[in-house]
Design a protein that fits this description.
Blueprint lengths: L1 E10 L2 E10 L10 E7 L4 E4 L1 H9 L3 E2 L1 H10 L8 H38 L1
Length: 121
């Protein structure tokens, strides 16, 4: 299977990446089938070869998550909500509800104590 992934290059601690098409079994920095673009995370500079990318995507190439985000920003593919995002948002919502319920319980418990201390004075 062909993957669209980022290939690291540049100095130590000053990484830049090339967007490449390669076999899924090849190494990250191995020889690619084709170079399709460039991404510099420090300056947020992105250059994409749109025609070549469209061709590879139509042939069934699968982008990694990082490449998918770059392609969505570049407007080459539609933004899709993945299953992991749905599950994560549901967990966050459940956590918020639980926290708000606990806050209400604590408020109810402390409210009678505050009233009784006010009556004592």
């Amino acid at each position: 299977m062909i993957k669209l992934r980022l290939k690291r290059f540049g100095k130590k601690r000053e990484a830049s990446f090339r967007l490449v098409a390669c076999n899924s079994t090849s190494r990250r920095d191995g020889r690619p089938l084709q170079e399709l673009g460039f991404y510099n995370p420090r300056t947020k500079e992105t250059r994409l070869d749109t025609e070549a990318l469209r061709l590879r995507l139509s042939q069934g190439a699968q982008p990694t998550d990082a490449v998918r985000a770059l392609l969505e920003k570049g407007g080459l593919i539609e933004k899709t909500i993945r299953h992991a995002e749905i599950v994560g948002k549901a967990k966050q919502e459940a956590k918020r509800k639980l926290a708000s319920k606990q806050e209400k319980v604590v408020e109810k418990e402390t409210a009678p104590e505050a009233e009784s201390s006010a009556e004592d004075s």
